[in-house]
C-alpha cells in the first residue's frame, strides 16, 4: 500500500510540474505576442496618420493648383489649355480623376474615371470643399479671375498609400504568428518527451482502470436505453408505413383503372375516326348517285309508251336512251361495289371497337388475351384497308417492303392496335407538308427469335431534345393531341415481350418507329 501511495504521489508531482511548465510557456508566449502587437499597432497608426495628413494636404493643393493653372482655359472654354494645365501639375501620380466645370456648372473637361462613392455633380454643388470616402480624398476649388468665379475644379486622389502601413502590419503579424507556432512546437515537444512517460505510468494504474470500467458500463447502459427507445419508435413507424402502403395500393388501383379507361377511349377514338371517314364517303357517294338520272330515263320511257307514233318516228332517240341506261347501270354497279367496300370497312371497324371493349373488360377481370398465329404483314394489310380512304383523300403514298417473315404467336388485337396508332401518327405527321411529298414506308423483317416492323414517314420530324419524352404519358407534339397513343403502344409492346423505339434526325426530316416482337409469347 505504501509503495502504491508513493507511486501515486510521484505521478501527481510530475503531472503538476508538467502542467505548470506548459502554463508558464503559454503565458510567456502570449505576453510577448501582445507586447509586439501593441507596439506594431501604435507604429502603424502613427505612420497612417502622417500619410493621411500628407494626402489630404496634397489633394487640396492639387485642386487649388489645377484651378489656378486652368483659369484662363476655363474662361476661354479652351479644352486644350485645360488639358495643358493638367499636364503641368506637380507629380499627379496619385490623382484618379479630375473634373472641370464652367460657370454654368457644365462639364468642360475631365480626366480619369470618377469614383462611384461620390457623385461629382452633387459634390460640385455641396457646401463642403473636401470629402473623404473609403478609398479616396476628394477636393473642390473655384477658378477665380480678378475676384470673379468662372468655374470649378474637383480632384480625386487615391488612398492607396495608406495600405502600405496595413501591409506592414499584416507582415508583422505573420512574423509573430510564425514565432508563436515555433514556440508552440517547442512546447509540444517538451510535453511529449517529458510528460509521455508519466502518462504511460498513469494509464497502468488500477484506479484508472476501475474508473474506465465504471464509465464504460454507464455508457453501455445508456446506449441500451437509447436502442430500446429507437426500437419502439421503429415499430411505430413500421405501423405507419403499413398504413401508408395500404393507401398507396388503393391509389395505384384507382390510377390503373383510370389508365385503362384512357386507353379504351383512345383506341376507340382511332377506330371511330376511320368509321367517320367511311360514313362520310358513303354519304358523298349517295349524294352523287346516278339514281336521279335513272329516274329521268324511266320518265322518258313512260312518255314514249304514251306516244307510240313519236317513238316510231324517233328510233335514234330510243337507241341513245338505251345506251345512256346502260351507262347508268354500270355506274350504279360501281357505286354499289364501292359502297359495299366501305360498308365492309365500317363493319370491320365496328367489330374492332367491340374487340377493344371486350379486351379491356377481360383485362379488368385479369384474363390473359387470346394468342393467335399470324404475320405482322397481314395485320398491316388489314389496317391499310381500314385507312385506305383516308390515305387517298390526303394524297398519301404508301410503300410496302415486306420481306420473308415468320408466323408469330401473339395477342393479335394488341399488335393490331399498335399498328393502328403508328399509321395514325404517321398520317398526322404528313398533314403539314406538301401533298407530293407525303409518303409512308412500311417494312417487315424477321430473325430466329423475333420479327420487326418499321413505319417511316417523310413528315415534320421530331426535335431530338424531346425525343426521349415521346413515349411519356400525356406528352404530345400534335396540336389537339392527348399523348395517350404512343404511351399505350409502348406499354402494349412491353406486355407482349417486345420493344417500341423511335428515331428522327430532326425537324423536317421525318421519323422512324421500330417495333420488335418475339416469335413466341413470354411466359
Poorly predicted runs of 5 or more residues: 363-368
Distance between the termini: 85 Å
Shape: flat
Strand-residue fraction?
Answer: 15-25%
Radius of gyration (CA) equals 51 Å
SS element count, helices: 12
What is the count of β-strands? Answer: 12
Mean pLDDT: 75
Helix content range of the residues, please? 55-70%
Textual characterization of the structure:
This protein is an alpha+beta fold and 523 residues long. It contains twelve helices and twelve strands. Helix 1 (2-69) packs antiparallel against helix 5 (162-203). The longest helix is centred in the middle third of the chain and has 82 residues, at 206-287. The two termini are 85 Å apart.
Give the arrangement of secondary structure elements.
Layout: H1 2-69, H2 71-75, H3 79-87, E1 95-102, E2 107-112, H4 120-124, E3 130-132, E4 136-145, E5 148-158, H5 162-203, H6 206-287, H7 291-306, H8 308-313, H9 315-364, E6 372-374, H10 376-393, E7 397-402, E8 408-410, H11 412-429, E9 439-446, E10 450-457, H12 485-495, E11 499-503, E12 511-518
Parallel strand pairs: 7-9
Antiparallel strand pairs: 1-2, 1-5, 3-4, 4-5, 6-8, 9-10, 10-12, 11-12
Helix pairs in contact: 1-5, 6-9, 6-10, 7-9, 10-11, 11-12
Amino acid at each position: 500500500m505504501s509503495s502504491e501511495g508513493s507511486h501515486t504521489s510521484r505521478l501527481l508531482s510530475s503531472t503538476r510540474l508538467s502542467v505548470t511548465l506548459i502554463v508558464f510557456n503559454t503565458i510567456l508566449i502570449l505576453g510577448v505576442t501582445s507586447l509586439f502587437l501593441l507596439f506594431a499597432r501604435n507604429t502603424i497608426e502613427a505612420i497612417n496618420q502622417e500619410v493621411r495628413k500628407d494626402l489630404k494636404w496634397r489633394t487640396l493643393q492639387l485642386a487649388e493648383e489645377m484651378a489656378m493653372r486652368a483659369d484662363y482655359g476655363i474662361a476661354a472654354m479652351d479644352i486644350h489649355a485645360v488639358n495643358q494645365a493638367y499636364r503641368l501639375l506637380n507629380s499627379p501620380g496619385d490623382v484618379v480623376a479630375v473634373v472641370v466645370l464652367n460657370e454654368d456648372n457644365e462639364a468642360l473637361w475631365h480626366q480619369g474615371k470618377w469614383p462611384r462613392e461620390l457623385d461629382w455633380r452633387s459634390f460640385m454643388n455641396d457646401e463642403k470643399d473636401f470629402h473623404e470616402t473609403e478609398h479616396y480624398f476628394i477636393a473642390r476649388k473655384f477658378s477665380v479671375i480678378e475676384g470673379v468665379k468662372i468655374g470649378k475644379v474637383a480632384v480625386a486622389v487615391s488612398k492607396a498609400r495608406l495600405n502600405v502601413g496595413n501591409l506592414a502590419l499584416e507582415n508583422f503579424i505573420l512574423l509573430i504568428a510564425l514565432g508563436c507556432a515555433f514556440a508552440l512546437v517547442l512546447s509540444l515537444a517538451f510535453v511529449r518527451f517529458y510528460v509521455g512517460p508519466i502518462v504511460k505510468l498513469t494509464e497502468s494504474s488500477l484506479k484508472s482502470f476501475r474508473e474506465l470500467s465504471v464509465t464504460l458500463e454507464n455508457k453501455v447502459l445508456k446506449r441500451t436505453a437509447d436502442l430500446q427507445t429507437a426500437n419502439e419508435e421503429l415499430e411505430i413507424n413500421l405501423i405507419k408505413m403499413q398504413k401508408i402502403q395500404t393507401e398507396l395500393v388503393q391509389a395505384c388501383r384507382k390510377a390503373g383503372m383510370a389508365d385503362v379507361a384512357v386507353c379504351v377511349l383512345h383506341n376507340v377514338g382511332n377506330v371511330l375516326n376511320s368509321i367517320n371517314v367511311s360514313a362520310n364517303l358513303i354519304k358523298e357517294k349517295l349524294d352523287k348517285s346516278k339514281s336521279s338520272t335513272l329516274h329521268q330515263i324511266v320518265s322518258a320511257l313512260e312518255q314514249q309508251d304514251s306516244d307510240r307514233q313519236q317513238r316510231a318516228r324517233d328510233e335514234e332517240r330510243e337507241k341513245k336512251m338505251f345506251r345512256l341506261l346502260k351507262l347508268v347501270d354500270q355506274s350504279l354497279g360501281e357505286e354499289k361495289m364501292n359502297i359495299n367496300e366501305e360498308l365492309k370497312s365500317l363493319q370491320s371497324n365496328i367489330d374492332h371497337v367491340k374487340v377493344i371493349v371486350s379486351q379491356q373488360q377481360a383485362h379488368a377481370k385479369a384474363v390473359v388475351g387470346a394468342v393467335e398465329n399470324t404475320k405482322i404483314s397481314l395485320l398491316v394489310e388489314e389496317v391499310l384497308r381500314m385507312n385506305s380512304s383516308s390515305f387517298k383523300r390526303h394524297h398519301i403514298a404508301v410503300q410496302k417492303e415486306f420481306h420473308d417473315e415468320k408466323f408469330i404467336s401473339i395477342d393479335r388485337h394488341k399488335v393490331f392496335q399498335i399498328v393502328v396508332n403508328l399509321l395514325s401518327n404517321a398520317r398526322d405527321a404528313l398533314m403539314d407538308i406538301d401533298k407530293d411529298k407525303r409518303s409512308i414506308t412500311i417494312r417487315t423483317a424477321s430473325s430466329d427469335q423475333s420479327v420487326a416492323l418499321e413505319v417511316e414517314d417523310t413528315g415534320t420530324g421530331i426535335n431530338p431534345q424531346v425525343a426521349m419524352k415521346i413515349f411519356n404519358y400525356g406528352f404530345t407534339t400534335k396540336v389537339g393531341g392527348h399523348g395517350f397513343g404512343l404511351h399505350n403502344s409502348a406499354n402494349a409492346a412491353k406486355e407482349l415481350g417486345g420493344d417500341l423505339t423511335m428515331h428522327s434526325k430532326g425537324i423536317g426530316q421525318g421519323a422512324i418507329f421500330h417495333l420488335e416482337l418475339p416469335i413466341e409469347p413470354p411466359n
